[in-house]
């Protein structure tokens, strides 16, 4: 049973699971809570048993069943006595979203939408096992792992301003390539510059509603404007890095005598070699993901230039939603360095934080919430509530409510494509089955999820964008 | 005995694979994982890959076996349809010898339903239990990140 703390805050009490150190907190509305599986609440409770966890084991309003942490899970750990766990990051390390704003209006773009989507589908490789257009050397792969988007910009994929508008400037410090296995390198090398598959996408959108004129202006957004959203991660490199270190950390659990309710929560005490090596490899994967999104952005710009000479695609922001990072937060009135894990959650820093680009620092960082295919996405602005309640975190998407198996039984991919097409949304995918899995109805409505974080002042609504065209793996 | 069954999981793919011995259980687990990715009827077995794995426990051996198949899939750009596995227990070390039959991915014939990113350790287990007819069978439970 959950205790209602507030209209949008529900507590998982200490007794829910043996060994809980702190209670759980789910930031959600009653209506959305009714759709959350009991297993998700158990996963919130499981995370609450990890050593050194601070305040609460948290879940965002898009919470759903994961493996290890729930999807939408957030937890922070003390440097002293805390742990780091790949269960709180996931296999797709630094899966994330970026948004580019164009200087074009929907009216100009709609007549060309089929050409644009077809070209994007062709120029940005996607799908299961897709190889990239790039052939990077071993040295360039090292640079990708250590310097992320900064390397990509230097190599000609983008401009310096892109880095300013990227979480961590697209380069997480502390990457250690010596802890990236040969297998991870072999998977990562041919896949740099690929979108991947599943829920990853490249979408052309139209800003259809502005909620806050001042904030929208700060972010360079206006009604009717065309934007582009890129959702992808660290591909096989990240998957392999997590797989490799999960086994090392499983051994560490025994070595350091940690008791776990779920093996995927394998972890190591901060400061131990196992923890530091995992952090270094995870940072390398995070950098790979930022380089990947940077390269895809450059190719997206090329496609737009083909049809709209001199068009501009400026990066609004780039956020990670599967990552563990060292951040300073206020705990019981004093500042502490914490290892914040976000598994399917977005950083949502409010005004004043030095990590936010100068242009946005006075108002708070952009928080990008992709919808599902065919439903709106949102741009929000990180706010004070996030700093007080969630270690500066917000939701990351709409949140699944139907399993992939069930989705494929219920929907037919070609019909999903036709329905979207009648609504004026051009969709291309490697196979229609992928579309059934990602049918709009398998997700919670994104507006309800976003309303929760807005009400709690975790992140304020700035703009809503709707899809015009989507390229999927 | 069914070779494997899929269970409901909102975000990911969960299955139970069975076998009369460990080799058969590992083979069926591999088939269940591949079956989540692609229709097995579309996959031939012209080429053979061999795999040898050593691990300190039976669980680790299964985890590494399935992870190795995903690795081969990506770096060899191949899909697989036949698995022959022998598992040896040798005190401290568990050993696996696997022969994998498959073919290189042909985008005109091979349509992927799901991308399996990795094998998770969530609710991961392998144990011997009594089957319906009273015989002892092995069951492996696996959740895949997709």
From TrEMBL, chain A:
Q: Give GO terms: molecular function aspect only.
A: GTP binding; metal ion binding; RNA ligase (ATP) activity; RNA ligase (GTP) activity
Entries under InterPro entries matching the protein: RtcB, RtcB-like_sf
Can you cite a GO biological process for this protein?
A: tRNA splicing, via endonucleolytic cleavage and ligation
Q: Which cofactor is recorded for it?
A: Mn(2+)
What Gene3D superfamilies does this protein map onto?
A: tRNA-splicing ligase RtcB
What chemistry does it catalyse, as a reaction equation?
a 3'-end 2',3'-cyclophospho-ribonucleotide-RNA + a 5'-end dephospho-ribonucleoside-RNA + GTP + H2O = a ribonucleotidyl-ribonucleotide-RNA + GMP + diphosphate + H(+); a 3'-end 3'-phospho-ribonucleotide-RNA + a 5'-end dephospho-ribonucleoside-RNA + GTP = a ribonucleotidyl-ribonucleotide-RNA + GMP + diphosphate
In this chain, Mn(2+) 2 is annotated as bound at: 231, 321
Q: Which family does it belong to?
A: Belongs to the RtcB family.
Q: What is this protein called?
A: tRNA-splicing ligase RtcB
**The organism of origin for this protein:** Methanothrix harundinacea
Gene transcribed to yield this protein: rtcB
UniProtKB/TrEMBL annotation, chain B:
* Similarity remark: Belongs to the archease family.
* Keyword Metal-binding attributed: yes
UniProt keyword terms in alphabetical order: Calcium, Metal-binding, tRNA processing
Q: Which domain of life is it from?
A: Archaea
Which GO molecular function annotation, any one, does this entry have? metal ion binding
Q: What is the protein name given in its UniProt record?
A: Archease domain-containing protein
- Can you supply a Gene Ontology BP term from the record? tRNA processing
Cite the InterPro entries for this sequence. Answer: Archease, Archease_dom, Archease_dom_sf
- Tell me the Pfam families matching this sequence: Archease (PF01951)
What sequence ranges are listed for the domain Archease? Answer: 4-146
Q: What is the lineage of its organism?
A: Archaea, Methanobacteriati, Methanobacteriota, Stenosarchaea group, Methanomicrobia
């Amino acid at each position: 049973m959950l205790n209602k703390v507030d209209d949008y805050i529900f507590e998982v009490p200490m007794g829910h699971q043996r060994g809980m150190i702190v209670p759980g907190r789910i930031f959600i509305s009653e209506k959305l809570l009714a759709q959350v599986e009991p297993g998700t609440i158990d996963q919130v409770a499981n995370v609450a048993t990890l050593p050194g966890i601070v305040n609460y084991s948290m879940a965002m309003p898009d919470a759903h069943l994961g493996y290890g942490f729930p999807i939408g899970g957030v937890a922070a750990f003390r440097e002293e006595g805390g742990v780091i766990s790949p269960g709180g990051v996931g296999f797709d390390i630094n899966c994330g979203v970026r948004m580019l704003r164009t200087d074009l209006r929907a009216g100009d773009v709609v007549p060309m939408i089929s050409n644009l989507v077809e070209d994007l589908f062709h120029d940005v490789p996607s799908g299961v096992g897709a190889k990239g257009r790039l052939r990077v050397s071993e040295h360039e792969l090292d640079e990708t792992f250590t310097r992320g988007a900064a390397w990509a910009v230097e190599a000609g994929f983008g401009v310096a301003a892109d880095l300013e508008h990227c979480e961590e400037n697209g380069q997480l410090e502390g990457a250690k390539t010596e802890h990236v296995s040969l297998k991870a390198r072999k998977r990562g090398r041919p896949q740099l510059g690929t979108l991947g598959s599943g829920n990853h996408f490249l979408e052309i959108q139209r800003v259809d509603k502005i909620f806050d004129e001042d904030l929208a202006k700060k972010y360079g957004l206006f009604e009717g404007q065309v934007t582009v959203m890129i959702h992808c991660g660290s591909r096989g490199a990240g998957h392999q890095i997590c797989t490799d270190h999960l086994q090392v950390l499983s051994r560490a659990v025994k070595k350091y005598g940690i008791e776990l309710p779920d093996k995927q929560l394998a972890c190591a005490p901060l400061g131990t070699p196992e923890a530091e090596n995992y952090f270094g490899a995870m940072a390398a994967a995070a950098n790979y993901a930022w380089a990947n999104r940077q390269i895809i952005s450059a190719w997206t710009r090329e496609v737009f230039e083909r049809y709209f000479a001199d068009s501009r695609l400026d990066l609004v922001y780039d956020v990670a939603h599967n990552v563990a990072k060292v951040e300073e937060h206020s705990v019981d009135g004093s500042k502490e360095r914490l290892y914040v894990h976000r598994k399917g959650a977005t950083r949502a820093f409010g005004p004043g934080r030095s990590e936010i680009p100068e242009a946005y620092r006075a108002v708070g960082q952009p928080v990008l919430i992709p919808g599902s295919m065919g439903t709106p996405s949102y741009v929000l602005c990180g706010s004070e509530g996030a700093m007080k309640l969630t270690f500066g975190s917000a939701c990351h998407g709409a949140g699944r409510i139907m399993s992939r198996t069930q989705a494929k039984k219920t929907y037919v991919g070609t019909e999903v494509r036709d329905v979207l097409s009648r609504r004026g949304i051009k969709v291309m995918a490697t196979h229609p089955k992928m579309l059934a899995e990602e049918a709009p109805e398998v997700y919670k409505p994104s507006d309800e999820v976003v309303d929760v974080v807005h009400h709690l002042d975790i992140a304020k609504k700035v703009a809503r964008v709707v899809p015009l065209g989507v390229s999927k793996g | 005995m069914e070779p494997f069954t899929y269970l409901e999981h909102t975000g990911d793919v969960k299955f139970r694979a069975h076998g009369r011995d460990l080799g058969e259980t590992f083979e069926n687990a591999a088939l269940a994982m591949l079956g989540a990715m692609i229709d097995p009827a579309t996959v031939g077995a012209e080429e053979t890959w061999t795999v040898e794995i050593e691990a300190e426990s039976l669980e680790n051996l299964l985890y590494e076996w399935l992870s190795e198949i995903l690795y081969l899939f990506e770096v060899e750009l191949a899909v697989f349809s036949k698995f022959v596995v022998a598992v040896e227990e040798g005190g401290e070390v568990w050993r696996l010898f696997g022969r994998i039959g498959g073919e290189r991915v042909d985008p005109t014939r091979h349509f992927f339903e799901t991308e399996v990113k990795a094998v998770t350790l969530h609710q991961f287990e392998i144990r011997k239990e009594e089957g319906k007819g009273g015989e002892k069978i092995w069951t492996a439970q696996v959740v895949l990140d997709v």
